[in-house]
Amino acid sequence: MRSVVSTRSHHKPLFWELQKVVSIVQFCHRVIFALIVFVLCYSVVAYGTTQEWTQGPVIIAVLLAVFFWAIRLALVNGAEMVLSPLSLPMLFTGSYLIIRYALSDVEPVSRSSMLMPVTAVIFFFVVLNEIRHRWQVTTVVWLITGLGALLALYGLFQSTIGARWVLGKAQFAQYFGHASGTFFRPANLAMFLKIAFAIAAANFILSHRPKIEKIGFAFICLITGCGLFLTLSPEYWIGWIAMFCVLVFFAVRTRTWRFRWVIAGLSILAVVGSTIVMSKYKPSGDSNTEGTSLQAELDNLVLAQSPLAKNETPVLSPRSLREAALAVGHPNIWIGSGGGMFPWLFPLWRTNHGIVQGVVEHCPNQYLDVFASYGLMGVGLMLWIGIHLVLALVQIIRLRDTKYGTNRPSNRYALVAAGLAIMAAVIVDAWIDLRLHTG
Cβ distance 329 to 371 under 8 Å? Predict the structure, then answer.
């Protein structure tokens, strides 16, 4: 649901002034939408913008979009600013991130962790106010799903030849033969492919788009599903199963699909098959071996700042990282240790030869990672956003069902179903994410 805030002036423009203003406003609309498309494409293609040097163009593009948005608001008499139920929690979150950065112990370390989330908050308001027409929504839908298909095909190529490069940069040795697309980590590709799959599947099943477009969405589902499997990231298949269950629920709920029970049966078989595959998959490495005492390592790092001996090779498990997140966030339980501080408060570990050094970038459990960095306030804001988003999507479905019923296909209905499916995947992935970078 959206609300509109407007301001009106008593000045009545002349005809030639009105024509000039209309031309400038239309130009601003086009530029802002072009910048939105650029951000969506670049964020995926540029290694997922996980590297600091790739984040600059995104921030510049968002600031330019805000600049043209401000011009449009200034020129239009009675300009409208669109708000949604998510606007308030997003505004509070952006403000808290800035305040927490100002209170951080080491500002250069926390700067990167602050800039991208704040940029995402600003980008949210830009998209909310600028994407209003059906052609814009259709463009974004095909952009995301098309990128998903292209990256899945690129991942198929990587998996076939055992590629050791990602767009000209060396890939980590443990990911040779894995589909990773333009990302360094296959798990990142898996997450993006799930987003593309959810949007494509929802439009194939629930929308009233032409048959030729639905056939295209069906092929995209097939390609992205294969790409997701080739990432060899079984922990992310669990989130895909949760997302798949949500889509199946809407497919069964929609009475326009003649073979909805057949789809439900096949979906159950797919879930069971995926579960069997995951149970048989055993990742290499001794990731379950515990290293030295975690609290002792934290004390050594914070108090003595003494590095580990070169002949020691502690193997860190997800459990030890979760315990570390609790230990790091406990001293400042309300506001956390600050963004980006977890790697510095957790000890470094080395190989036997001391040549290659691994850095723990964050806790694998995203809820604990937010707690370690931003405390209970950060966790509360994250839950506030998630709950409001789910409630807003459910409210849209209820209003539409009341007006049209459940047996009428709708593009909006498809987007809402895709949004709920993606939320289900994100909620699950946030618990089981296993991201331990080395290099």
Answer: yes
